[in-house]
């Protein structure tokens, strides 16, 4: 009898030591294969540490979407009556039973979580691969990106306890893959000699702008005033990732050369997270960060500009940084009125659940009155970077319907830039604010490229701006770059100037832009020539009205200002 009792006690102890034996597991996410560009290099080391992020079910994300659209639709009685931090958090905070259920699961496995978002809808735990494999009933392997040699630990499928379905949205990193190529501008053909000072006050577009784009060119193309902004509460944020650094000395030279009507000592402030920094040695100056800062400080005249440097203390660099920067800003009482980001990756590298969670983070910030802009990508219909493909490759996060995607144009008069990424998301459905414009384009397109894209997906880009042959100063020297990376900060600067006028008149800033933009197509210069080839096709042709190369077109600043209701 004593022996039998001891045997039963030992079985009970074994069960308590292995909680998974008491829980039924259910497949939660999987992918059919390895993304293009990666190879399986073998099982991951059991001792390797994974920084797992767990997304908890939010209280009422659908309610937040309705509230966002209510304050963003020009016909709504609540137009631009943006939500407070507390109002947004009420929609997002997970229910008490969700927090309890997830923490109990982690506690049974000897784990404690840390909140990594203001409301705790995202939490984090650090575990070795061996524990993660047990916790998620998964097989983790090391996958190597062939072109760069970068290695990452992932699984192609994982499970969660059945009783946590409805409480846990996803666990990351699991089936979503990073993009080691990032999304950086490319250096252009050396530009023609150009005297910027001679054109600072001219409304006519200088002929040199066909090859060499400067702030004067942008001002002339879009009729942008040089009058300084007046409202200190109106701010623009510039995202910085993958150890790209904005150089103050280069900005000073840029302003001296191209904005002689401004003080060359005009600068930006710095915020950091995830171990970010902004060293100032000339050799550490970066093309993307310099571009973004020079064309915000140098175009949004007088608007306070902040460079937000996201470090590499994450598992996935910019992919996790996308989430961290939004949670960082959501924690602030007064986040920037505009945020521009010139990084991205292909949508097919990310699980649809993770894409939706990141998109939900964008709608939180948008509901509070921030206009979020992203460069659409530089691979035409091949995605964020050109490559081989049989069907068109949409980019992320441009497919998210709660941000504004910016494509690129080239030359003067403007035509669509051949690299400008655009198309239709396979994850996000088409929002109502663009349905009419997209339907008209698809009717005009006919059967061209039939079967290569999802006609019912969220269509992008929304707008565009000049993005080819843009002059910057890098390590003390003037050089020329191209990419939608140029277009996003340019368009963002114009939005910041409109916000300044609105705030000066006691009105609210624009906030989430898209319903307003699609309601005012007359405020854009329609681009009807060119296309964005890729995947062994000519891509999409630009046509009258909205198109998936240049969106609604490039901005007409006075018309946009008038549409916004500012004098």
From TrEMBL:
Catalytic class of the enzyme: hydrolase
CDD domains: Peptidases_S53 (cd04056), Pro-peptidase_S53 (cd11377)
Cofactor: Ca(2+)
GO biological process: proteolysis
GO cellular component term of the entry, any: extracellular region
Location of this chain's protein in the cell: Secreted, Extracellular space
SMART domains: Pro-kuma_activ (SM00944)
Cofactor note: Binds 1 Ca(2+) ion per subunit.
Record's keyword terms, sorted: Calcium, Glycoprotein, Hydrolase, Metal-binding, Protease, Secreted, Serine protease, Signal, Virulence, Zymogen
Assigned EC number: 3.4.14.10
SUPFAM superfamilies in alphabetical order: Protease propeptides/inhibitors (SSF54897), Subtilisin-like (SSF52743)
Catalytic activity as recorded in UniProt: Release of an N-terminal tripeptide from a polypeptide
Ranges where the Peptidase S53 domain occurs: 212-567
Gene3D superfamilies associated with the record: Peptidase S8/S53 domain (3.40.50.200)
A Gene Ontology molecular function term of the record: tripeptidyl-peptidase activity
Active site per UniProt: 288, 292, 485
Signal sequence interval, chain numbering: 1-17
List of residues binding Ca(2+): 526-527, 545, 547
Designated name of the protein: tripeptidyl-peptidase II
Organism of derivation: Antrodiella citrinella
């Amino acid at each position: 009898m004593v022996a039998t009792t001891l045997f039963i006690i030992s079985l009970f102890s074994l069960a308590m030591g292995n909680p998974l034996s008491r829980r039924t597991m259910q497949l939660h996410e999987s992918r059919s294969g390895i993304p293009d560009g990666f190879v399986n290099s073998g099982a991951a080391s059991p001792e390797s540490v994974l920084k797992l992020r767990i997304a908890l079910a939010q209280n009422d994300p659908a309610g937040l979407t309705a509230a966002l659209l209510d304050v963003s639709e020009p016909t709504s009685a609540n137009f631009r009556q943006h939500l407070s931090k507390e109002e947004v958090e009420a929609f997002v905070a997970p229910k008490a039973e969700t927090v309890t259920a997830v923490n109990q699961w982690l506690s049974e496995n000897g784990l404690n979580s840390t909140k990594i978002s203001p409301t705790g809808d995202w939490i984090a735990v650090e575990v070795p691969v061996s524990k993660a494999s047990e916790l998620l009933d998964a097989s983790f392997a090391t996958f190597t990106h062939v072109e760069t040699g970068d290695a990452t630990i992932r699984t192609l499928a994982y499970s969660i306890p059945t009783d946590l379905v409805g409480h846990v949205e996803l666990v990351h990193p699991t089936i979503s893959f990073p993009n080691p190529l990032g999304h950086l501008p490319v250096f252009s053909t050396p530009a023609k000699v150009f005297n910027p000072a001679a054109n600072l006050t001219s409304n006519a577009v200088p002929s040199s702008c066909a090859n060499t784009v400067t702030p004067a060119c942008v001002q002339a193309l879009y009729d942008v005033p040089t009058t300084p902004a007046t409202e200190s509460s109106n701010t623009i944020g510039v995202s910085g990732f993958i150890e790209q650094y904005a150089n103050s000395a280069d900005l000073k030279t840029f302003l001296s050369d191209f904005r002689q009507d401004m003080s060359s000592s005009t600068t930006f402030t710095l915020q950091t997270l995830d171990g970010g920094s902004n060293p100032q040695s000339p050799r550490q100056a970066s093309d993307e960060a310099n571009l973004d800062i020079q064309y915000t400080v140098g175009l949004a005249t007088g608007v306070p500009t902040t460079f937000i440097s996201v470090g590499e203390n994450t598992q996935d660099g910019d992919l996790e940084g996308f989430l961290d920067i939004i949670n960082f800003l959501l924690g602030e009482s007064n986040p920037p009125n505009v945020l521009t980001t010139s990084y991205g990756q292909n949508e097919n590298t990310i699980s649809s659940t993770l894409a939706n969670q990141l998109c939900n983070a964008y709608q939180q910030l948008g509901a509070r009155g921030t206009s979020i802009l992203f460069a659409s990508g530089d691979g035409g219909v091949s995605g964020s970077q050109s490559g081989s493909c049989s069907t068109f490759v949409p980019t992320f996060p441009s497919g998210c319907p709660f941000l504004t995607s910016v494509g690129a144009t080239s030359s003067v008069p403007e035509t669509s830039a051949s690299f400008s990424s655009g198309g239709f998301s396979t994850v996000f459905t088409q929002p109502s604010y663009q349905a009419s414009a997209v339907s008209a384009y698809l009717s005009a397109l006919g059967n061209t490229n039939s079967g290569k894209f999802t006609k019912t997906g969220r269509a992008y880009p929304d707008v565009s701006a000049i993005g080819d042959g843009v002059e910057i100063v890098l390590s003390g020297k003037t050089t020329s770059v191209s990419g939608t990376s140029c277009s996003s900060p340019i368009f963002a600067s114009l939005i910041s100037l409109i916000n300044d006028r609105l705030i000066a008149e006691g009105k609210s800033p624009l906030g989430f832009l898209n319903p307003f933009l699609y309601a005012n197509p007359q405020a854009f210069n329609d681009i009807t020539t060119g296309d964005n080839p890729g995947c062994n096709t000519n891509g999409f042709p630009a046509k009258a009205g909205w198109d998936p190369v240049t969106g609604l077109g490039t901005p007409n600043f006075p018309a946009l200002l008038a549409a916004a209701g500012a004098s």
